[in-house]
Amino acid sequence: MTKLKTLFLLLLSLGLAACGNDQSEEASETTPASSIMVAVANPLAAEAAMDILREGGTAIDAAIGALAVLGLVEPQSSGIGGGGFLLYYDAETGEISAYDGRETAPAAIRPEHFQNPDGTPRSFVDIVRGGASVGVPGNLAALDLVHQEHGALPWSELFEAGVEIAETGFAISPRLRWSMTRAPWTAQMPDTLAYFYDDAGNVLEEGTILQNPHYAETLRSIASEGASVFYEGAIASAIVEKVRGSEVNPGTLSLRDMADYQAVEREVICSPYRTYQICGMPPPTSGSLVIQMVLGLLEGFDLAALEPGSVEAVHLISEASRLAYADRDMFIADPDFVAVPVQGLVSDDYLGQRAAQINPIISMGVAEPGNPWPDDMEERSPDITPDVPGTNHMSIVDQYGNAVSFNSSVESVFGSHLIVGGFFLNNQLTDFSRELQRDGRPIANGAAPGKRPRSSMAPIIILNADGGLFAVMGSSGGSRIPTYVVQDIVALIDWDMTMQEAIDMPRHANRNGATDLEIGTTLAAIAPALEALGHNVRLTPFDSGTHSIRIVDGVMDGGADPRREGVVLSQ
Q: What's the whole-number mean pLDDT along residues 477-488?
């Protein structure tokens, strides 16, 4: 990377610190001539992806470069110390491939991993920090697998921007500064205290230039030696030492756990909505299935006739969400450990039966799970373990027409708060249920050796009626992720909005409980009417991070969530 380019990236970083979430008109402009587009959670990461595409790289090449930068400039959300799920659309074949890079539990984990000696669950705040919450990171293994099949540029060239920015430094953005002050343990954990605080014990200010030479060294090793150095080399040893030697909640992660990790290519799941095919990841993530269930439940309602953000529209989407989340909590977990009725949950017959419970004029309240496999019902109890919004999403379309939809996460803000080689380790094991059973029945999402905890991440690719690429979508936001993506899909398909218009709409969410409305928006005006229909309404801030791309008649139309710092870049 040239010195001029390095200076540009530093200035871009400083500009981000100065302007917050504002998107430049140039960055979000869409023209018929656009042949490449990226929608990424941070301008520096977006520019890194664009550089790779300009050099002839594919969408997966660009995604690798973007993630390397995101782990530096947005470490509160994702990075190489976390895991994720990725969809790849191959323009030549028209096929969509699904890649599972979710973290796995150590071999020494036990079902009672997050319980007190008396068998009661430990609180989330007690377990999130330290080594016991760290799963084997899967992002690099998944990206390596996809790159072997779909990459164009050498692996060694994809980390240059991350190395350069780590060495030169970047300006602490408003969101990173907010996360540094929001996370309750940054001043208590040695790693975050050393990284985010000055010698006087004050948290670094927005705009401060932050350098990370250790991260640059890590990326150089990965670039030159491949992903294997992360799982079997010096980096793996450092991860294990950090986890097992944690001053808070030491873990049991071993070198064997690291070496045994495998990313998995799974069979993509697709379901119809109107004239489109909605395609996503199968379990262990629940996000795509929830989205497809909600849309299937809404198929019989004429949403196009309703006003966006109206009482009627919010009510119907909320009621469908109740039913889908009830099934999510009961049935979805790692399919390598428990049977998951994937096809049953999205079958027309089952969704038709469930949709009959939706009353347009009264809320059903808390929905009960259904029975998607009536001939062989497994006796389970629902799991209401929360997953928190330490996640980001990127959507990329390259000049060849290929596309990537990639959800990545370290789970909580700054994950476990442990830093190795300049990057944060995840706390994804807290996504396992802390209860073993309820009402005498087991919970599907319990911890087990080598098991992947359930997720809500939901990368989505939508095909049009001709089988061509229509949209590349996804969001961050913890267990609310499916609700954000559903709203955007309805806005695109039923209300004919642009991608940015869809993302800009006020958010609402129902996870089979209260109906949450985004505070400070026009949705507040419909709260009394929703309450009259039986909804328990809450006005609350929303932290969605949607970054998506739509293609109509060959013209790309991207959107970045104004609630975060992402941008859309095109050429």
A: 96
